[in-house]
Design a protein that fits this description.
Elements lengths: L3 H14 L11 H22 L6 H12 L4 H29 L1 H25 L1
Helix pairs in contact: 1-2, 1-3, 1-4, 2-4, 3-5, 4-5
């Protein structure tokens, strides 16, 4: 059983270390390391722009993960990591817009997005 925050941390590893797959190509190692550094910088930007005092980036990803778990970690990883990657790409887009409109815009968009999942999770808790 993987805790729901584990899926968020798996996403973080995926979005920062994806250039390691390029080791199987003829790309030089220094270019792969540069891509890892750029991926880490992009993750830092998204993390800082989305995190607010109400909802942190990792906690928001954990709540999204909690609403979508199937009970079997092997099956959940198949569909949850691609979905979380899509959510991350949305956050990248919102963070780029936030560079122009301000950090509060990105935080508001992240809170609005995660509030839907908080509502789903709290509704499930009430039924039990």
């Amino acid at each position: 059983m993987i805790p729901v925050k584990g899926y968020a941390y798996l996403l973080i590893l995926l979005v920062t270390l994806w250039p390691l797959f390029l080791l199987f190509t003829t790309m030089p190692l220094y270019k792969i390391l540069i891509l890892i550094a750029l991926s880490l910088a992009l993750l830092t930007l998204v993390w800082n722009f989305c995190t607010s005092k109400d909802t942190s980036f990792v906690n928001g990803l954990a709540v999204i993960s909690a609403t979508m778990t199937s009970g079997c970690a092997n099956i959940t990883i198949i569909y949850l990591l691609p979905f979380l990657t899509f959510v991350y790409l949305i956050c990248v887009f919102q963070s780029v817009i936030g560079l122009v409109r301000g950090r509060r815009y990105t935080q508001a968009q992240w809170i609005k997005f995660t509030d839907k999942y908080y509502a789903i999770l709290s509704n499930r808790m009430k039924k039990q």
